[in-house]
TrEMBL record:
Role this protein plays: DNA polymerase III is a complex, multichain enzyme responsible for most of the replicative synthesis in bacteria. The epsilon subunit contain the editing function and is a proofreading 3'-5' exonuclease.
Name of one Pfam family that matches: RNase_T
Organism: Reinekea forsetii
Name of protein: DNA-directed DNA polymerase
Catalytic activity: DNA(n) + a 2'-deoxyribonucleoside 5'-triphosphate = DNA(n+1) + diphosphate
Length: 204
DNA sequence: TGCCAGGCCCTCTTTAGGGCCTT
């Protein structure tokens, strides 16, 4: 059940980089974290109403053939809006996924109440010695078990969720606190809003 | 055929530019 105390980690596969340039979502994957554990997941392909490029087919493994019989974006996004409810939201490079979430939900006139935070931005502060801050690199860096099946929405959201739990564990270790100070999470997340910081401070 | 965006962050900065990330 969605609520303001759960965190939905989401990832979109899309036809390109910018909804402002006409790009659409082709897959949504998400997991819910509650009390430090993944409790639920959501995944669906969606038909964007146009053919995807060979680059995207190769990059994601999502072919035009796969999308041919997928439900339309509006139908899937309506279900996803119900899934996220009032939960707070997390993504790796959240500015990208937020743009697509905003664009797709605006098309079906579905608002959402959660606040976004970004595992990429926080990881740059917490894992400063990582070779880079791509999702796959950070999964290796944190010794998170992985099959390497990146660039699919559910898998990337699952890996982002595990990365997030690793980030929280690292902060707890660094500051030797079972609960992460509210002000510290606000600083790391660069958010002045109280909701996300309260959520992130959940004990392990 | 080839290209497209945008937010954050760093620095040889702030009257700016470019790399990193995401598909």
């Amino acid at each position: 059940m969605a609520n303001a105390d759960s965190l939905v980690v989401l990832d979109f596969e899309t036809t390109g980089l910018s909804p402002d340039q006409g790009d659409r979502a082709i897959e949504i994957g998400a997991v819910r974290i509650e009390n430090g554990r993944v409790t639920e997941h959501f995944q669906s392909l969606m038909n964007p109403g146009r053919r995807v490029s060979p680059f995207i087919e190769n990059y994601t493994g999502i072919s035009n053939e796969l999308l041919k019989d997928a439900p339309p974006c509006g139908e899937v996004m309506a279900e996803f809006a119900d899934f996220i409810g009032t939960s707070n939201l997390l993504a790796h490079n959240a500015s990208f996924d937020k743009r697509f979430l905003d664009a797709e939900l605006q098309r079906i006139n579905k608002p959402y109440a959660g606040e976004f935070t970004c595992s990429l931005l926080v990881s740059r502060r917490v894992f400063q010695s990582a070779p880079n801050h791509r999702l796959g690199t950070l999964v290796d860096y944190c010794n998170i078990e992985s099959t390497g099946d990146f660039h699919r929405a559910l898998y990337d959201s699952q890996m982002t969720a595990q990365l997030w739990l690793a980030i929280l564990a690292s902060i707890r270790t660094t500051y030797q606190r079972s609960e992460i100070p509210f002000a510290l999470m606000q600083k790391l997340c660069k958010t002045p809003k109280p909701g996300i910081a309260r959520l992130l401070a959940v004990p392990s």
